[in-house]
């Protein structure tokens, strides 16, 4: 609680979040794992009435405030912390502000890499694709800070992170696992447009799943591996990623073939024959909607974006148009508390702002 004096929270938000905390607090006390989760804050310096702005950072601070009002174990951001549409120095500054807020909390945090977090949206507007981040920026600003926390998650070479909390293992994937090379001053891949997991990261995932022992596993990521009609949700290795989670649920052993693409291909060996645990769910953002669906027994739970999506913007989803989201109103933001009750085997998703108040799923 001693950090609260540093958090500026707007009056309307404080009223709204106090009410949310009073409602949700009693329902999550005693749960095995409680996460405060936001996604897609799309923070940027310039405020646009109909679209993104510095309110992304305010939403992070409001999550910080809420976390101290509830029995929260971990704070989570599922990516697209920044919009990545401004000069590199500005985006880096916004990114640093957000990370500093997570580091200033006594509650540990984990962050998934989003496809906007490398400033490629800004670089797209330049003929030479200038202003895009080199991989060290995200590594130094985010992954290193995550790994340095006392009792924080382990972070792999490919940005997959793992922590255990009681009888739950939480694995956060990097769905922007794109090996970048500079060719004649330009990046070979636009990270904003290429969601991917490499075979090497899938091997790290297979090892992390095996290491879960008898725990159940909650998967977090920016983008979901699959979409509702069983189509890929990422461009490279969506199906192998999904199949690996299925293999875990079924206690299988074998080798997964990710093809021979020089950047994303390879073989992944796995052995889940001694793992009695199950995948609780795969929780993601990225789509700017709320959805829950199951593909071959894997439950995908998609969370709405925190960033304000104004009524008049062409990119605003139908889902967000229905919320009539306005600035300085609870509809401006969207956030969640995800609670895992291992005794009742229930995943409960409580939402505030432009989010469903309560969703409950058996696992």
From TrEMBL:
<dbReference type="GO" id="GO:0016787">
    <property type="term" value="F:hydrolase activity"/>
</dbReference>
<feature type="domain" description="Calcineurin-like phosphoesterase">
    <location>
        <begin position="34"/>
        <end position="289"/>
    </location>
</feature>
<protein>
    <recommendedName>
        <fullName>Calcineurin-like phosphoesterase domain-containing protein</fullName>
    </recommendedName>
</protein>
<dbReference type="InterPro" id="IPR004843">
    <property type="entry name" value="Calcineurin-like_PHP"/>
</dbReference>
<dbReference type="Pfam" id="PF00149">
    <property type="entry name" value="Metallophos"/>
</dbReference>
<dbReference type="InterPro" id="IPR029052">
    <property type="entry name" value="Metallo-depent_PP-like"/>
</dbReference>
